[in-house]
Write a structure and sequence with these properties.
Number of strands: 5
Order of helices and strands: EHHEHHEHHEEH
CATH class: Alpha Beta
Radius of gyration: 14 Å
Oligomer: single chain
Helix content: 55-70%
Strand order of the largest sheet: 3-2-1-4-5
Strand content: 5-15%
Shape: globular
Length: 137
């Protein structure tokens, strides 16, 4: 199975956000163990760095978080075509639309997110961390 991890799933683990950390951690553990292929978009990596730095007030922690992330998931490039497709859709949330576009361009089976509503109408299946764990366990 090939999944695109939404930024919130990663941040839940990195910032230890309750009550979400447990299932998000398990999803990332499956990726780390190569039981599923996990991806994040290149644009999500910059968002993750920014959010970790913002909440921890530490550049070092932000780089460590991204470094660990790069050991667990693969980074999906964001191409010019991906940006154009997302732009043309005029979605309410451009960032989520770009993640969905990238997921489709690399043929992911789904997006794993806590905010499924953000990806409604994007043409790709969505699962919460809890839901995807039920499918793969």
């Amino acid at each position: 199975m090939k999944i695109m991890c939404d930024t919130n799933v990663i941040i839940d683990v990195l910032l230890e956000r309750e009550p979400f950390i447990e299932d998000s951690y398990k999803v990332l553990k499956f990726c780390e163990e190569h039981k599923i292929d996990g991806f994040v978009s290149a644009s999500s990596v910059t968002d993750i760095y920014y959010l970790v730095r913002k909440y921890t007030h530490s550049i070092d922690m932000a780089y460590k978080a991204v470094g660990k992330l790069l050991e667990i998931v693969k980074v999906c490039s964001v191409t010019n075509n991906d940006v154009l497709i997302a732009f043309q859709k005029k979605a309410k949330d451009f960032e989520d639309c770009l993640v969905a576009t990238c997921a489709k361009s690399i043929h992911c089976d789904c997006i794993v997110t806590r905010n499924k509503r953000d990806f409604d109408g994007m043409g790709i299946p969505m699962f919460t961390p809890t839901e995807i764990l039920l499918k793969i366990m």
